[in-house]
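LOG
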Amino acid sequence: MSQPITVVLVHGAFAESSSWNGVLAALAGRGVPAIATPNQLRSVTTDADNVRRAVGSIDGPVLLVGHSYGGAVITEAAVGAENVVGLVYVAAFAPEHGETSLGLTDKFPGSTLGETVRPIPLGDGTNDLIVDREIFPSQFAGDVPLADAQLAGATQRAIRDFALGEPQPAETPAWKTLPSWFVFGSGDKNIPVEGLRFMAERAGSRKTVEIDGASHSVMVSNPDAVADLITEALSHLS
C-alpha cells in the first residue's frame, strides 16, 4: 500500500478512550499512526455510524481495533467502509448477525459481570449501566495497579442496556470478509475465555494471543503485547 495504515482504536463499555493510552504510546514509539475515537455506548447501530464517519474522515487505509463491546461496534462499522482493511479484537465481542453482546457473554459459563452492574434509569424504559465503582478494580482490571484501576472505575462511561442487547445488524458481519486478529487474557471476568476462544476460531483469526492471567483490561495491563499484535497485523496488511 502506498499510504500508511492508520490504526483506529474503539473503547468498550465501562471504559473511555484513555484506556488506550498505553497502546497509543507503544504504537507511537514504533512510528505507527493511531487515534482513539470516542464511542458513545448508546446502540450498536448509532455507535457504528459514529465510528464509520471517523473512519471516513481518514485519508488512506484503516485497521480497526475494538475492545469489549467495541468489538461489536467495529464489526458493524467496517461494513461498507471501503478503507477498512482489517480488524483486531481486544478481549472483544465478534458477533454473528442477530447475536447480542449479552448473549455472547452468557454463551459460556464464568462471567461475573452481571453481579457488579448497577442501573441508572433513563426515563424511557432503558437504563444506563455502570460497574459498581468499589468492585470495578477486581472485576474489570485485576492485573492493573489498584490506584489506576480505581481511577478507571471513577471515569468509566455508562453504557445503555439497549446497546448490549441489540442484535448485530449486518447480515454479513465484517469478520467474514476482512482478516482479523484476537488478543485476550485467561483471567477475563467479563467475557469467559471459552467465549473469546470461540469467537476467534469462528472468525478465522489470523493469530490469537492469549495472555496468561490477564484481565478484561488487557490493553491497560499489557499494552506492549496488544501493540505487538497490531503491529503484526499491519505487517501482513501492508
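LOG (cont.) second protein
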Amino acid sequence: MPFLRWSIWRLAWAMPGFLKTGQIGDGREAACAAYVEANARRGDIDDVLATIDEFAYERSMLMNVGDEKGALLDAAVSRADPARVLELGTYCGYGALRIARAAPSARVYSVEFAAANADVARRIWSHAGVGDRVTCVVGTLGDGGRTLAALADEHGFTRGSLDLLFIDHDKNAYLSDLQSILDRGWLHDGSIVVADNVKVPGAPKYRQYMREQQGKLFDTVEHKTHVEYQTLLADLVLESRYRG
C-alpha cells in the first residue's frame, strides 16, 4: 500500500522544508541520479524514464509528474508539436525528459529555483543523451524579472515563440507565473499550457482563472487522474489551449 511506505511519510513530514529547498532532505534526489547512472542504459531515454519510475515506486517516492500523468503530458506534447518548450519546476528532470522524448526536435528550457536539483537533472539528462537540447535555468519567474530577462536575452524567448508551457512547481505561483508569460506575449494562438497537481496539493486560483477564461483566452480540458506513484489520491491535470 503506497501510504504505508516510509518514503511517503518522510515526504509528508518534510514538506515545509521542501517548499524552501526543493528537496525532501533525505538525499533521495541525488540517490535517484546515482540509481539512474548505475542501472539505466546510457543514451536510452525510455530506459532512463523507466528507471526513475522504478526508483520512485520501489525506493523513494519522487515529486515529479510520474508515469500515469506523464502519459497525459506526452499526449499534450504531441498535440502541440513544439519547437520551443518551457517547464516551470525541474526537480529531478523527469518532466523535461518526457517532453524531450515526445518532441525530439524541440528545445526544452526548464526553470528550477534549487541549484542542487538542477545538478541532479543535468546528470540524468546527460545519461539519457539529451543534455544538448534540454537546458536548466536556475531561478524563478517571481525574482523581480531576472529569470524572465535571462530567458529572453540568453535563450531567445520572444513574442509568440513558446509552443508548450508545462507548470509543475510552487502551486501558489501557477497563476502569477502564467500571467508573467502572458504579459511578455510569449504564447501564440494554439500554444498549449499543461498544469500538474491542480487538485493535490492544489492550485485553486489557477483552476478558477482557467474556468473564467474558458472560451475566451483559453480552452481547457480537466484530466482526472491520480497523484504520482499511487492510485488512492485523485488529482487533476489541466490542459489549456491559448486562443491568442
